[in-house]
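forwarding from the other thread:

> can someone predict this with SN-glycerol-3-phosphate?

sure thing
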Amino acid sequence: MKFFADTANIEEIKELAETGLLDGVTTNPSLIAKTGQDFIKTIENICSLVEGPVSAEVTALDHKMMIVEGEKLSKIAPNVCIKVPLTWDGLKACKALSSSGININVTLCFSATQALLAAKAGASFISPFVGRLDDISGNGMGLIEDIVNIFNNYPDTLSTEVLVASIRSPLHVLESAKLGADVVTVPPNVLKMLASHPLTDKGLSSFLADWEKTGQKII
Ligand code: G3P
């Protein structure tokens, strides 16, 4: 399973990229606004830090302008992936841009039939938002299960990767992996939570206390 960072914060991305565990980055207009930085420059910077796909979202609502914006954003770097919303216009833009070889991430997906349409429109990634569904008492992980099962029924014709978005906790990551989702995009704080366990901390301090008693040093 691939791990993307769901942030536009350069410092956070730098730190995560150093681990070698980062396969890509997703941004959206809200994450860009949070940085207070220039959109194009921010995407350019992120693309220089990460080899994998970096999602940059269009803000136009009609497909013709989405295509113009998508073409402009795709010129920033070869690893830019254009994000379009799951609307009729977004699907039209997805079809046109993907047909000209540009990678597309279709975002704001909340149903399996929406995901199916995005796959048929040639999306490289479909982004179902699990946290926002859970927020309204929906079943975020149930949606992932449905999409993964549907895509698995058509391995020869649907090659879109399921990118689980709006992740709020380590449990969302665990469940995504169990269901066979292709990618999770995770906020940096949640990504760090994945590495921590109280028994690891406890075990490490007792190992170090015992090591002190030996009076030895490795270097
Ligand atoms: O990748 C989409 C994600 O940023 C949305 O997350 O937490 O705003 O629902 P959230």
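The CA atoms of residues 130 and 141 lie 6 Å apart. thats all i got for now
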